[in-house]
From TrEMBL:
This is Amine oxidase. Belongs to the copper/topaquinone oxidase family. The active site is at D307 (proton acceptor), Y391 (schiff-base intermediate with substrate). It comes from Phascolomyces articulosus. Residues 102-196 form the Copper amine oxidase N3-terminal domain. The modification 2',4',5'-topaquinone is found at Y391. Signal peptide: none annotated. Contains 1 topaquinone per subunit.
Amino acid sequence: MSIVAHPLDPLTADELRRTADIVRKERGDVSYIFNSMTLKEPAKDVVMGYFNYDSSLPKVTEIEREALVVLIDRPSGLVHDITVSLTKDKITEWIKTEGQQPTVNALEMIEAEQAMKKDPKVIEECRKLGIMNMDQVFIDPWGIGWSNIKGKRLVQAICYLRTSPDDNQYAHPLDFNPLYDVNEQKVLDIIVAKRRNSKFERPTIPMANHHFLPEHLGEENLRKDLKPIQIIQPEGVSFTIRGKEIAWQKWNMHIGFNHREGLVLSNLTYKDMDGSVRPLFYRLSLAEMVVPYANPYEPYNHKMAFDVGEYGMGFLSNSLELGCDCVGSIYYMDAILNDLKGDPWVIPKAICIHEEDSGLLFKHTDYRSGKAHSARSRRLVISHIVTAGNYDYGLYYYFYQDGTIQFDVKATGELNTQVLAEDEAAAPYGTIVAPQIDAQHHQHLFSFRVDPMVDGIKNSVAETDVVPSEHPVGHPDNMVGNGFKAVTKVFNDTDEAQGVASLEKHRSWKIINENRIHPYAKQPVGWKIHNPSPPTLLAKPGSIVHERAIFATKNLWVTKYHRDQKFPAGYHIYQSDPKLNLGIPQYIKEKKSVRNESIVVWITFGLTHIPRVEDFPIMPVDIVGVQLKPTNFFMGNPGIDIPLSNKVSTKSAYASANVNSCCGKTNL
């Protein structure tokens, strides 16, 4: 039997060992690897019935504990999807999945780099470029996108040079890409990038260093005028944690983690001013992302990283450093994943939890008396950071005292670079960020999966456009021509429930519960989706990346909930065939009702990155994200009961004088 505190808790180290033992006993041989082992989450209605989030659902008292295991045979590459019941201590389902490939485990990538550096073909190509010491060569394995080579688990490797062990390798890109089979652990081919509009057949490798580490820059070159900033909470933090559940202010939620999505938040509730606990969101996660590059020439036209589905944000997670990645009074959670042998793999301090000041929550000054009242906003931050090859992504959930939820991605790290010949131009598909170093144009498009339970399991989605009055100036209903209004429609089915942002129409979407009408607004209670970063996929229809990433062609999709539909580009997507249209196209292939149903909302946001010289040698964070804001849900501002802030509670002081002041006193 498996006894856990919460049905959505990730698998423990003991459960991983038990799961692997059950599979090994059944399998018998050793010609395979454990690609992943993760909790097979119970169905939404089961968990909601267990916690009594919706009185219309049957009460559930016990939930079976299950693990989902993915094995890969070596060298054949056959994939096995196995369900293990930890409650019953046995395998309950074993599916052999042909023609599909799961995530590339981070340990597989390390194996691949080591093998390629020893390969004679790679060594010979380095010799042609004058590189004699293979310890100087570093190789980033990338997904191939899709290939006509069948039955192989391939990576296209991008090669670089380092002049010292911790040099910035992206300042020294090489001009060839090995094609490597991860299962056979063998280099199949070497692809040398052709020069375009150049008199040179091969470029020289740029050897100028472009450092960013302080020890390389030199202490004498670092700023000397920064004074310390201290963040203290003398009475401790305002949140409490029990197992994987956290309570903060009026929020309560469960914190989960898996190899693919990384951080997952579930069972989000908010305590209303009357004391009632209202269910809001069953599950929130970064379900997929795609990073398509713009260079249309071989081998760069296969650069289309799906970092969630192809590599796994959990597998790529960092161990966070106090005072660097997280500042203040910090609570950490470890992540427990699996290695290729099926043993537990612990990432210490993978999740950071803390509070921070976030400016004003609200303020008003009475201009007659001069009396002002200000409330400072505090937010709870739950975050983790992943390194996906050259890029680093900080993934942040913010919870505010007025009920707002914000999910931000902070993109940083290194530009993915390619080498140019001395006479070669980067335009029109890239930017020269240093001599002979081309940073290619690309996009970062994220799919945020929102599984709502707004005041119950049955929800709908409404689209609102703000438009001018249809009446001309001088009409009795628009005498001076200033009229405009919000026009709302509720999506009925999956054919309708697809949306693209419109700045001209000030378009927005709301997740609503049509069974709960607000007594003041006379509208369904709901949560508004605010998406200020709404680019969509630029690659043309028919292209490999377009057909593999249909989810990124629109900003909003709504599907009917299904336990197994968690990923908008599909489940096993590594080298996915573009003709299969996996993920959302499959989920909506049959028209289904999404009105007053258990639904899932998929939000696409991101950025189109035209690199700047200032993004090199290391990129300052570029922040994109979405917000979920209560709309006609509460009876007023839910943060109105925030205590008064003042110089005592915030330890604030003038830089040059000690003058009494208070956020609620008269200023005149």
